[in-house]
Amino acid sequence: MFVGGFDIDSFVLLAALLLIVGVMVTKFSSRLGMPSLILFILVGMLIGSDGLGIIYFDNAKQAQLVGIMALVIILFEGGTQTKWSTIRSVIWPSLSLATIGVLITSMLVGLAAKYIVDLTWMESFLLGAIVGSTDAAAVFASLKERNIKTKIASTMEAESGTNDPMAVFLTLVFIELITVNEPNYWLVFGSFFWQMGVGLIMGILLGKIASMSINRINLDSSGLYPIFALSFALLTYSVASLLNASGFLAVYVAALIIGNSELTYRHSIFRFNEGFAWMAQILMFIILGLLASPEQILSPSVIGSGLFLSAVLILIARPIATYLSILGMKYSTKEKLFLSWAGLRGAVPIVLATFAIVADVESGPMIFNVVFFIVLTSALIQGSSISLLSNKLGLSGPKKETPTHSLELISIGKANAEIIEFKTEENTSIVGKSLQDIDFPDSVLISAIVRDDELVTPYGETIIQENDFLYILVSRKEKNKLRHMLKR
Length: 488
Hints:
The protein is mainly alpha-helical. It has helices at 8-32, 36-47, 60-81, 84-87, 91-116, 121-130, 136-144, 150-162, 164-179, 185-216, 224-242, 247-259, 266-291, 294-297, 300-325, 333-341, 347-358, 364-392, 476-486; strands at residues 411-412, 417-423, 445-451, 454-456, 469-475. The protein has 2 domains: 8-393, Na+/H+ antiporter like fold, CATH 1.20.1530.20; 417-486, 2-Layer Sandwich (Alpha-Beta Plaits), CATH 3.30.70.1450.
C-alpha cells in the first residue's frame, strides 16, 4: 500500500528513481568495498514508513513472493555462469557444507539463541535454521567483484547454490513442530531425501529439455531466446515445488546444465540474465528493507541479541561447521579459515524469516527482527573484509580479464549459422600457425581477431597468437567439430 494514494504516473516515476538509485548504489558500494545488498536494504528502510514515509509496506506474504521469485532469477543467472569444469572437483566438499555444515550451524546458533533470546527451544532452533545457510545472491555478487582463487570461489558458489534445500527443510520442520500438535516425525525427516532427490532429478531433466528446446526452436526474434530460457527457470522451480521437492536446488542444477551446454544466442541469454538478476536483486532487497522496521530492529533488545548471535554464528558456529564438514578433504588451514569467514548471509535468511510470520508463529516478528540484524551484521563485517582476508591469506587469484572491446555475438537463425567467440591460450593447438595452414571445416570463416584491444583484419598469412580473441562464423552443424578442433 502506498502512502497518499500514489497514482500510476507517480508509481512509475518512483520505480524509475529506485532503479536509478539501485544502479548508482552498486557503483558506490564497490568503491567502499561494501556489499551492495546493505545499501539496497538501507534504501528500502529509508523510504519506508519509519523513514521518509514515502511507502508503507507490511505484507510479509507479498515480500516472501517477491523474494522467492528474485532468488529463482538470481540462482538461475549464477548457475548458468558457473563452469562445471571448475566445480566438479569441489562438488563433494560443497555438498557436505551445504548439508552437514548447515545442520551444525543451525544447531549451534539455535542452542545459543535459547540462552540469549526469550524463545522456546523449538523457536530457538527455528531461528538457527533460518540463518543456517549462506546466501546465493550475496555470494554470487561478492565473487563477481573480487578475484578469489578458483578452488575457493567454486566451493563458495556450489555451497550457496545447493544449501537452500537444507535451510528450507529445517525451517519448515521447526515451524511444523511449533504449530502442529502431533507432527509425523518419519514423514518430516523422509521429506528431506524426497526434496533433495526429486529436486536434483527435476533439475537435470528440465535442464536438458531447456537446452534442447533453445537450440532446436527457430524464433523470429533473437530477443525471445533469453525470455524462453528464463521461463524454464520459473517452470523448473514451480514443477519441483508442486512435487514437494526443492525448487531452488532444481533451478540451480538446471542452470548448471543449461550454462554448460552449447546454446543458440548464448551471449544474448547470459547478458539478459545478468541484467535481470541485478534488477531482481535490487527489487528484492529494497522490498525486504521496506518490510523491516528500523525502530524495532535497532531496539536495544534486538541489537543485544543480534550482536551476540552474530558473534556466535561468525566466530564459533560457522568455523566449527566448516572444519567438520570438510574434515579429511584437501583444503589447507588458510582455505578452511577463509571458507569459515566467507559464509555470507543475505536474502535467503530474511525470506525464510517471513515463513515464521506467515505461519503465525508467536515469536515470528521477534525472530524476523533478530535475523534481519544478523544479516546486516554478516554482510557488513564479513562482506566488507573478504578481499582483505583473501589477500592476507594469499588466496587471491589472478585479475579477471574482461575484454574492453565490444562485438555483438549473433546467431543467424534463418541461415543456421552463428558467430562464436574463442580466446586462444598458450596450449591452444592453432597458436603460432597462420590461418591458411589451419584445417578449418569448410563452413568456417574467421570474421575478426581482437589482439591487445585492437582489431586485426584476418587474412591467409595472419599468425594466431596467445590471448587472441577470434570471432568465427560457422554453420551450426559444424560448430561442435570446430570447438573440438580448437580445444585439442
